[in-house]
């Protein structure tokens, strides 16, 4: 039921920069709603990584950054580290009575 | 430190009922909206239900509407999800999540903290 589209996987060597796209529509991201990102390490619960498009909660390294433009958003990881290997999900609000909270399809980041 | 601890997950037969609970600590529980988000094994995240700070406003995803009921007890800092008429496709880890705001179906609409999850398996 995901309505935000992400690439299934991205990979990079340690130290490289990777980006994850999140494509929505005029009923969610394109309507002006903020985008949030979550990191899910293997076998653990999701954790808030980026909120309000480009803000980091306390404790999140500054190598993680977010941006938004039109109906899409992106998460960038600079200086990729082994511990960044995880699943990443975008999330937004939507003009929908039945599905007001929408998640992305998820992206697996692999550190080569 | 914010802590959310889910309980109640179990193996149940199709058509039966189950109630999940979430005990919250480390923040003013009655100031915030709360949610349930689920994740089928090996799959992505799906928002299930949300409830405003005072319980006056609730919302459900299409796949559970009419079968699941969310509630909260602010005196006991607890959140609950009553699940009826369970189906095999309801099999998932169910996460309790704290909103950063006090209502549902409105921004900021983000899940600030998550519990560790409780596994519900629906199978005969």
How would you describe the overall organization of this protein?
The complex is a heterodimer of chains A (112) and B (124). Chain A has 112 residues and is mainly beta. Chain A has no helices and nine strands. In chain A, strands 1, 3, 4, 7, 8 and 9 form a six-stranded mixed β-sheet that branches. A three-stranded antiparallel β-sheet of chain A has the order 2-6-5, with no helix packed on it. Chain B has no helices and eleven strands. Chain B is mostly beta strands and 124 residues long. Helix content of chain B is 0%, strand content 48%. In chain B, strands 2, 4, 5, 6, 9, 10 and 11 form a seven-stranded mixed β-sheet that branches. A four-stranded antiparallel β-sheet of chain B has the order 1-3-8-7, with no helix packed on it. At the A-B interface, strand 7 and strand 8 of A face strand 5 and strand 10 of B.
Please outline what is shown here:
The complex is a heterodimer of chains A (112) and B (124). Chain A is built from no helices and 9 strands. Chain A is mostly beta strands.
